[in-house]
Amino acid sequence: xxxxxxxxxxxxxxxxxxxxxxxxxxxxxxxxxxxxxxxxxxxxxxxxxxxxxxxxxxxxxxxxxxxxxxxxxxxxxxxxxxxxxxxxxxxxxxxxxxxxxxxxxxxxxxxxxxxxxxxxxxxxxxxxxxxxxxxxxxxxxxxxxxxxxxxxxxxxxxxxxxxxxxxxxxxxxxxxxxxxxxxxxxxxxxxxxxxxxxxxxxxxxxxxx
Length: 209
What we know:
It is a single chain. Helix 1 (about 5-25) runs antiparallel to helix 4, helix 2 (about 35-50) packs across helix 4 and helix 3 runs antiparallel to helix 4 (about 95-175). This protein has 4 helices and 5 strands; from the N terminus they run ααααβββββ. Strands 3-4-5 form a 3-stranded antiparallel beta sheet, with helices on one face. Strands 1-2 form a two-stranded antiparallel sheet. The chain is rod-shaped. It has helices spanning about 5-25, 35-50, 55-85, 95-175, and strands at about 175-180, 185, 190-195, 195-200, 205-209. It has one domain (about 5-209). Helix content is about 75%, strand content about 10%. The protein is mainly alpha-helical and about 210 residues long.
């Protein structure tokens, strides 16, 4: 004879928990990156390789600085030459030395700008690489946490299944016995018959047999 319905009813909470835990184990919640997160990660990867400024952007900044420096140098040369000519020294070494100094300052300014851009860009690469490293560690922690949860779901399912089996076995051993025909019958006399069905009261609950 099949196991009595009442034994199944007593094990129902544990069975329900088993089903729920197995459902969580076989259908875990998957982490999905948002569009913003994907864009952020892509930008970090780009910056880690070429910095916040692309090669073209760096060349444009240096070019603009060079043009400005050239304009300033031309103005400076014109002023110096005008002063020297008025002093009657246009054919002297003073003219050459003065204009050479202006050219040297122009070159120094452009070179310093290029150096600063390169330094700052390198620092931005390091910052992006550090951020990528932190992102990787956070992702590893997230995956580890999800793996722990799956293992917990499986453990809960096994424990709940054991509780269900134990509940059914305990109910059968303690309160039921088989008659000569192999049918399960309650050992006690607390069975209530109503409308052709049998019920029993256990711990204040009315359970159909």
